[in-house]
Amino acid sequence: MQAIRWGAALAVLTFNAAAQAASPCDNPTDQTTMNQCAGKALAASDKQLNDVYRSLNQKVSPEGKVALQRSQRAWIAWRDAQCAFETIGTAGGSVHAAMYASCVDELTQAQTKRLSAVNTCQEGDVSCIHR
């Protein structure tokens, strides 16, 4: 009886592993899938950034909230302009959406890391940011 349970568990694990490996984003074969996968990756990174932003926003003083909001808005404008510049060579092409999303994703992950570091500091203490 226990052998049957182990066999069933192994079958489920094998099926789950095969299903995970079969994700279209593991090896996209067409531009539409590449664009969709880049968009999904960006959405996940954006959610992480928003979570860190909300956490930091709850931690800082009222003046810090204003400065954080101003900083984040300026960063978003810079990020979008930077990625528009970096992907200008693909503008109008089918690969542009994936390239742009990939650029925004990379910069979003970097900003998340930076805000996470700030989130570990006491407000005003910048010594822990660049460790």
Automatic annotation (TrEMBL):
Where the record annotates domain Lysozyme inhibitor LprI-like N-terminal, the positions are 25-115
**Alphabetical list of InterPro entries matching this protein:** LprI-like_N (IPR009739)
Q: Mention any Pfam family matching this sequence.
A: LprI
Q: Cite the entry's keywords alphabetically.
A: Signal
Signal peptide positions (record): 1-21
Regions annotated as coiled coil: none
Source domain of life? Bacteria
The entry's protein name is Lysozyme inhibitor LprI-like N-terminal domain-containing protein
